[in-house]
Amino acid sequence: MTDQTSSDVERNTTLDKVADRGLDAPATGYSSATPEEHELIVRDRRFDRKAMVPRHWHSGDPVATAWYNSVSASLPRGEAFFIDTLRMFRDDIPPKLAREIKAFTTQEINHTREHVAFNRLVSDHGYNVESIDQGIQAMLDLTAGRPKEFNLAITIALEHFAAIISRQLLAKPEYLEGADPVAAEVWRWHATEEIEHKGLVYDVWLHATRDWSAWKRYKTRALIAALITKKYFGNRIRDAIGLLEQDGYSRRQAKWKLYAFLWWKPGMMRRMFFEWATILTPNFHPWKHDDRALIGKLDSPYADAVMPAE
């Protein structure tokens, strides 16, 4: 074994100091918390398009229904953005990440297909959700011409938000208790795969920014996470209020009822706030919270909700 050069010693010392500060992975590569044996599984589920899903499909509650409908209406364009963003990195990544991007892409295409169908059911009940879709497109238009790493940081933030919502839905069945069975299965299936691929975008980020300083990497993704989550969450509230107004609520009534639903009872936003805030910490990685038990928990009961492939 050859002796280390003085530059090697200096470099290793610098990396040790970075590690001691708890900042993101060093610039020599990427250090992932994703379990080594973890794999992405594509579950090509098609849910019953002819099911009589009621207008207020979540427990007969217009408020709960409006919130989930608002989120669902935002997903098709958002997931297309995620796919397009990762495709920009697929030619210069390790083989394992390349395989995972391929599986991620298929998962997200399937999610988009099913939520387009779900959103059509919402529209069939008389709700106007086109403005939500247009609002998402307007927000994504702001990313045009930005560096691809900027768009990747946006994707990290939104995938983190999706993962912690998914964890809540699977870990606490009461969140979907009383919901229409077909609609509930759409959300559980989607949540399972969101958890499964929750670390991929971040691992691509660590590899893509391997030549950045640890401080630049941390500062960029934490700042974008704070800004984009505030924007996305604020828009989902705005759009859910709009859906409640279509049910005859005044804006004041809709706002108070929605805030009570999100922050008081059942209070999903309140309960997951500190989970979301982990993205602002220097040593963040999505798989520092191991959710594989939740993935396995719901891998078998889909048969009743599946219809034959078209």
Automatic annotation (TrEMBL):
Stretch list, region Disordered: 1-35
Coiled coil regions in record: none
Ranges of Basic and acidic residues composition bias in the record: 8-23
Domain of life of the native organism: Bacteria
Protein name in UniProt: Metal-dependent hydrolase
Organism expressing this protein natively: Altererythrobacter xiamenensis
